[in-house]
Amino acid sequence: VRARVMEVEESPGVEYTDIGGLTEQMNEVRETVEMPLESPEMFTDVGIDPPSGILLHGPPGTGKTMLAKAVANQTDATFIKMAGSELVHKFIGEGAKLVRDLFEVAREHEPAVIFIDEIDAIASKRTDSKTSGDAEVQRTMMQLLSEMDGFEERGEVRIIAATNRFDMLDRAILRPGRFDRLIEVPKPDAEGREKIFEIHTRGMNLADDVTFEALAEEISGASGAQIKAICTEAGMFAIREDRTEVRMTDFHEAWAKIDADEDADEDEVS
Ligand code: ATP
């Protein structure tokens, strides 16, 4: 069971330079994860405990997972990822045990970064303990909190959680000693979008007419994940026309397509 729900990567291969924008967020993650792992004596000398857990919150596809992977990579820590939804929905009745396993695996692989995506799935304030499914969710969350609280010998294990639904979180997980470092990861601004284009086109064969400043303005509201999709789609337009160079028009058409697809998705939901 363990192997199927936990993603364990010895070196996740994401560098800070792969992340566009998010400078402040990156600094904060480094301060809370990197410093305690690399120079624990700084904290013992001053006589404070390093922050326990970090919570990254913001819209989908903005780089939360990338940040967690980059800091694990930088510190040569093992990256262990689990999704909150998998903890409770995939193996009914196993949630609390999986959480125990998660921390056990992390301690075996020290230094390690535990990344819990979609933490809202196990820590939502709407949970009603009277129904059995919700009781299971609560047990899973209690186990997580007790692992974090009883973390005297936390050693070289850091915990990062992420959510797209900050407003739904049970405040209990935000108490001091738990996920007490909140970092908002917003959608990129125009400058960030331009940077993200540059990152994702590094390996692409671009025509001379391609510039990203105006394009970045045009696609306001796009996330990093969408920008990556635009780059791939632009390449597909070139391939369809049997070209090896990607032109400005390909990027425009790619955005029109991706934007239209998103709108269609939204219509379906509502
Ligand atoms: P979710 O909330 O949906 O899990 P997330 O915030 O964790 O999303 P990531 O998985 O980090 O998002 O990003 C998805 C992909 O989008 C990345 O692999 C990367 O290719 C691209 N991406 C997102 N944000 C950025 C960014 N700031 N810079 C560069 N690429 C980005």
Automatic annotation (TrEMBL):
GO terms for cellular component: cytoplasm; proteasome-activating nucleotidase complex. One of its GO terms (molecular function) is ATP binding. Residues 50-189 form the AAA+ ATPase domain. The keyword Nucleotide-binding applies. It is found in: Cytoplasm. The keyword Translocase does not apply. Consists of three main regions, an N-terminal coiled-coil domain that may assist in substrate recognition, an interdomain involved in PAN hexamerization, and a C-terminal ATPase domain of the AAA type. This is Proteasome-activating nucleotidase. It comes from Halococcus hamelinensis 100A6. The chain holds residues 133 to 402 of 406 of the full protein.
